[in-house]
Please model this.
Amino acid sequence: MSSLLYRLGLSSFRRPWIAIGAWALILGVLGTVIAVGGVQLTSNLSIDGTPSQEVLDTLADELPDATGGQGTFVITTEDGSSVIEPERVEVIMDVVESVYATEHVNGSVEEAQQPFIEQFDALTAQAAALPAAEQAAFMAQLQQQADAQIQQQIDDYGFAPLIVDGLPFPPVLISEDERAALFQFALDQQVQPMGAADLEEIIEAGEALDGEAGLTVLPGESLKFPVPALGVGEIVGVLIAAVVLVLALGSLVAGTLPLVTGIVSVGVGVGIAIASAAGEPINLITPILAVMIGLAVGIDYSLFIVNRQRNLIRVQQLPAPEAAGRAVGSAGSSVVFAGLTVIVALVGLAAVGVSMLTAMALVAAGTVAVAVLVALTLLPALLGLVGERVVSVKARATGATAEQHHRIARGWSGFIVRRRWLVLLGTAVIVVLAALPTTGMTLGMPTGGSASPDSSARQSYDAVGESFGAGFNGPLIAVAETGSEFDEEQITGITERISDVDGVRMAQVIGASDDDGTVAFLVIPETGPGDERTAHLVHELRETTVNGSGDEQTLGVTGLTAVMIDMTEKMAEVFPIYIAIIVILSMIILLFAFRSVLLPILATGGFVLSILATLGLTTLVFQDGWLGGLFNVEPGTPLVPVIPIIGTGIMYGLAMDYQVFLSSSMRDHFLRGESPRRAVISGFSATSRVVVAAAIIMASVFAGFIFSPETMIAQIGFTLAVGVLIDAFLVRMTLIPAAFAILGRATWWAPRWLQRILPDLDIEGHKLEQEPATQS
Model:
């Protein structure tokens, strides 16, 4: 492999415009396709095969009108006074009509009031048939009954419908203290698959009247679309990476090249994902993940190759073309292998059987593959344009006599070897302590209650909870289905059984199929969407039978809250399976790479410690609130369910990157005749500087996303940034070298029969040294 990559690198160096033109053409084609087809992002995180999704599928067939999501606006007064003053009622109804007029909102004012108008007309006709002397008394009695019903609702639930022109208007509820109004409306589809533009249209329709008559109009959390955008944090992360590159390579010219290749890798990788979607919505987390990992590995892979070329020029005094070819052949071999480990780890997510994760993983894996190809072709082409200027005349003149290995690295690795048992035990204790908070880790989707107090999502969430109850922030939909027609008595009985379930605040019928064989109910829990009691309620409802007996069909439950609960449970279920897959893959890959039995065990065990410590610290910050002010995190925020799995997949790939680069260098020195412990010191000293730079670059890129206003993106950024630092500095460059020093020669041992059947991948590039240099 090293010989093939050597020829590829040399060819790209000598004919740079071929590679540059090819990548420019690819970017141009992708840009054109995207410009024509457009970009549609969605926040949909549903998982096929879950109980909530199955209910949604049933509703789509039997009761399409009930398959849509629910939207809300909460309207409060700025001074805490009543919202039902005539002028304010008029504004509230203007908000209602404006929202109803948007494309994806079902219903209208007339439709909502029609049953009451018909009832009022019937009663008016009945009154008109009475003697004139009795009409006034009859109408007064009707008004008393209506007032009593309203008061009963207030007594039972703490709210009642808005009264407009003497008639109830159920879509708008008024709190008991009259300080808040809650406008609820149905959408023609679930909120998550909707695009940003559609949701923004609804929000703008309601907020257009914000401030009128002293009213504050706040959209509900479900209407907020988390739009991914590069902010100050992400830009600062890239700038830090640029500074580290220049310092690590000692040259502004050389330091710029990995940035260019990283940006190209992201552009092509994300471009392919969007273009291949053919105009269909793509989950917004998918491109964010691709940007994170594509930029990080794209920079790092090029860094390894450029660093190797510069060392070959400085130390061995090779001309730039030959050095570039050999760098691609040797460091490029490690890049290919490291990239494959990341790709395999990500593609392995398909094995857990969750289509949403599979799509995310395939896009991220594709971006990594692009980063590898860019590093092997575009980078040497750019080096060809730079030529001999990649190393200054002064650096070239002093390179042959300068000490090749970094003094600090040699001192640190020497300390590790001398104090190997102390280092091993001390590092293990630190990592284990960091992992302890995982015992209390809670998975769940963040709600408006965990958003910043200054955000409209938090203000809306709090206003709804305080005035109407936390359950209105996470309504459920229960579905009763049978092979025969439901009569009115049966529907009433089901409604009562739902209402009697512990944790249900109210339940009401919201629709029935044409054959009355499927009936949907709106269920308001007593607790909020992030409360464990709400998850328990969902399971209780799913055990509630349709006709009250113990051997008949049970209720189905769906809705955004139920979908999130099911996703959380599904992720918790498949996480151990994925860890097992990663462990097996890790053993096999490292066995092939280093032809060693113990090294795969050590490296994989170190990774398990890394991921547990990473999840522990993420739990400590986001869930327990430690240093929450520094990261703008509200205490009590659960970990998004996809974090452990996505974090494990990406972290495994990156961990193996560092393991491959460090271990291949140590093995190289061991095969050259050095003692096992001396090989640890020499190999560490030769490679650690660039690994340190790579780790800082990756952590900087990931850390730029920590301050995203979207909790999921912030958690992913924090998890990956902290994970890189823990794995690189505590595990790969401390714990593992100490274990190598303790094991000595056994580190590289494998039985002869196994060595005979394992291929020699030559990731150290030894075969290149046996070939004569190509004349430049």
